[in-house]
Amino acid sequence: MFYTELNSKIDYTRENLRWNSWGAYGQDFFKVGQMQEILKFLSDEL
């Protein structure tokens, strides 16, 4: 599941995230402070 890939050592950069295609949405989803927005986006998509 998605949540198992999150840990304290995760590097929030496009090069190290599997979901780097999200950049196409025109927003920076890769900031730690926007994790809630990321989870909301995922829950809306699923």
Report the span from N to C terminus.
12 Å
Mean pLDDT figure: 59
Strand content: under 5%
Evaluate the radius of gyration: 10 Å
What structural class do the secondary elements suggest? Answer: mainly alpha
Q: What is the helix fraction of residues, given as a range?
A: 10-25%
| Helix/strand order, N-terminal first | H
How many DSSP H or I helices? Answer: 1
Q: How many β strands by DSSP?
A: 0
What ranges have pLDDT less than 50 throughout 5 or more consecutive residues? none
Number of domains: 1
Tell me the major beta sheet.
none
Q: Report the principal-axis shape.
A: rod-shaped
Q: What does this protein structure show overall?
A:
There is one protein chain. The protein has 46 residues and is an all-alpha fold. It has one domain. Helices cover 24% and strands 0% of the residues. The longest helix has 11 residues, at 35-45. The two termini are 12 Å apart. The model has no long low-confidence stretch (mean pLDDT 59).
